Amino acid sequence: MKISRFIIFALLAGYLVWVVYPMAWVAYSSLKTDEAIFREAFALPPLDALQTDNYTRAWNEARFGDYFINSVLVTLTSVALIVMLGAMAAYALARFYHPLGKGVFWLFLAGLMVPVQLSIVPLFFELRALGLLNSRTGLILVYTANGLPFAIFILAGFFKSLPRSLYEAAVVDGCSEASAFWRVMLPLAKPGLVTVAIFQFIGIWKEYFFAFMFTSGDAGASVRTLPLGLANLSITSQYRSDYGMLFAGLVIVTVPILIVFIALQKHLVKGVTAGALKG
Question: What keywords would UniProt list here (predicted)?
């Protein structure tokens, strides 16, 4: 028994080092010069020679400040719409009977099976016809539509698992359908809401393909997000490898994801566990 525990502990420790060390290496390499990165790749930077200007240059010269604001606006708005609309649709499909209810539910799930590459051409022409190319609004609509199937799939299971007696008690106490949903049923689905929000935040924050396709040329430069900003670093550095600034950009992109995950990891574990037990 002790040997098996030691083996499991050793495997988990090895996996931890394998996952965490590359991120730590990028973080402290972002405080070094290119020469130091190549000369002593794995050495920590000396405290009296920290290259904090890598972050300044990435934020200003590479326009990471603008890209960061765009990513925040697009991601938070998209996540809020996905959670709100997904919760309402999932509740309606899970709680009320309608002859077409199952068909609509499976239609939403079909969205999970369609590769995003197949939707690029029709989405491009649709956004162009609506005048939403090279705009935050266009990206938000695309991300919301792309995230709804996953949200409905997760949240419908949560609403189905909630006791119907709670809904009936709310109605008996005088709640309308809308009031029962917002004041009783929705708070009980909090683990599912947080789970959906975390997964969608991470996915949208680091999304590149849609942002690249729908914010092209000089017209889309002002609404580009952080993943596109990383690709823009090679142009900003005049096609030479400025690894210090590149690593600084990677840290800027990664830190918000780590903060959100660490802050909400307890809710994420509860949500996944509840979904597994109730499924």
Answer: Cell membrane, Membrane, Transmembrane, Transmembrane helix, Transport
